[in-house]
Amino acid sequence: MPLPHRPALALALTIMLGVPAMTAIAADAASAAARASTALPGVSLFAPLEMPGLDRKRQVRLYLPPGYAASGKRYPVLYMHDGQNLFDNATAYAGEWGVDETLDALARQGKLELIVVGIDNGGDKRMTELNAWNSERFGAAEGREYLDFIVKTLKPQIDQRYRTLPGREHTAIMGSSMGGLASHYALAQYPEVFSKAGVFSPAYWTAQPVFGFMAGKPLPKDARVFMLMGEKEGPQMVADVQRMADVVAKSGHPAASTVLKIVPGAQHNETFWASELREALLWMFAPETTPATGSQ
Fold this sequence. Notes:
This protein is α/β, with parallel strands linked by helices. The chain has one domain (6-284): Alpha/Beta hydrolase fold, catalytic domain (Rossmann fold), CATH 3.40.50.1820. It is 38% helix and 16% strand. It has 10 helices and 10 strands. The chain has helices at residues 9-17, 19-34, 68-71, 99-108, 126-129, 143-161, 178-189, 209-216, 235-250, 270-284; strands at residues 43-45, 49-51, 56-58, 60-63, 77-80, 115-119, 171-176, 196-200, 224-230, 258-263. An 8-stranded mixed sheet has the order 1-4-6-5-7-8-9-10, sandwiched between helices. The protein has a two-stranded antiparallel ribbon with strand order 2-3. α1 (9-17) packs antiparallel against α2 (19-34). The longest helix is centred in the middle third of the chain and has 19 residues, at 143-161. It is globular, with a radius of gyration of 18 Å.
């Protein structure tokens, strides 16, 4: 059985190994605190927001494209999980995605400009917040409340404060591991809000009911889903994403609106996800669906 994505290892390691594991994680956190920030000027922080139904607050990180202040334009919006790992090596657990660097480059090239909203993970709550189904191993699901927070609390504030294109055709969601699972769920559960999902290294193994859920709740025909997996992420992870691609296809979803990319030799880490971000975003936000490279 594959382990949860590393930002959630605190809980798993405590269960399996006890205090020594927590000591190692504390040391890693101290190391992270000493790292220099790599966030670009377009990245800023919100004051922590209340999460209705979950009795906790959450840090939100915002990226604005380089020309935002002077343009007067409205922009598509991408919501992303695990905000600590997106923009800044100083806050990332095991390296950042480089979302700001990737999007600054795309903006300079005239290819894509986005607003990105990164929602920090909840530490030891990550495994339940990003899962819409109860787990004997990790506990009662909080995924519905977490996505309700994004859709009903966070998105209205973003649309009010910033020049967004608020319609579903301009709104996407993306994440890796548990965040990949949550993003696929969000695309099906909130089709009136999201029309695109980046489903990177999805941890379907933590939520086996997701296959039946997706079979019974076909995506809108125009919804774009980009499923990514590394060949070295484990036999079950690879088999599960292939199974999900089959479920999506059998539900009648158009092949032109679906990507399954399995990358030879790639492993479960931020370096892999960062390397695939540009291609995924250009495909998801393309005016017309274009083919992606990689194995299908």
